[in-house]
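Ticket #4471: structure output looks truncated?

Reporter: J.K.
Steps to reproduce: submitted the chain below (195 residues) through the standard prediction queue, then opened the result file.
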Amino acid sequence: MNIYTRGGDKGKTGIHGGQRVDKDDIRIEANGCIDELNSMIGVIRAFLPAEHEWQQILFRIQSELMVVMSHVATPSAIREKNPNPLPDNLDKFCEECIDNMTDNMGQSLSFILPGGNLVSSHLQLARTIARRSERRLWTLNKQDEVPESILKFINRLSDLFFTMARFEMFRDGTGEERWKDFLYKRKKKDTTADE
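Returned output as attached by the reporter:
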């Protein structure tokens, strides 16, 4: 079977259930962002040694994103026919990973500039793609309900990638380039200075 079908040459593409929609339909746009995010995770994995502890975490995220994409491609009216089970605890999985890393390096108290080494800078890029994916999903949600577990998962993913980027720099001994302290911390400093 050829990779090309010529079926999309006139600006339409198929979604789960057989319906054809415009290629710039918000459902397609949302899935395109998630696909881009999945590809970026693949780039990050390529930078890591095969035995790296994050390989298994990132592999699971990539696999779950494929399931997520199948559900985003499915209109809510026929979602129960989707053969791919959607886990409902993916946000908790992300939170556990975040908490484990934060326990080792401490909370972030400042806005930091994205960068560091190759892995941390690509993790920051993954964070921004996750945020864009989340925005597109909420736009889709206004037209056709997106499962809450998907919205929570994508939201938590951006937090996870931010934490992983920080942890990569922490483990590498690369200092964070800070921009400004979080507002609540600046207010606390100002209050202490007045006393």
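Triage note (M.O.): checked the attachment and the full token line is present. Strands lie at 12-14, 20-22, 110-112, 178-181.
Status: closed, working as intended.
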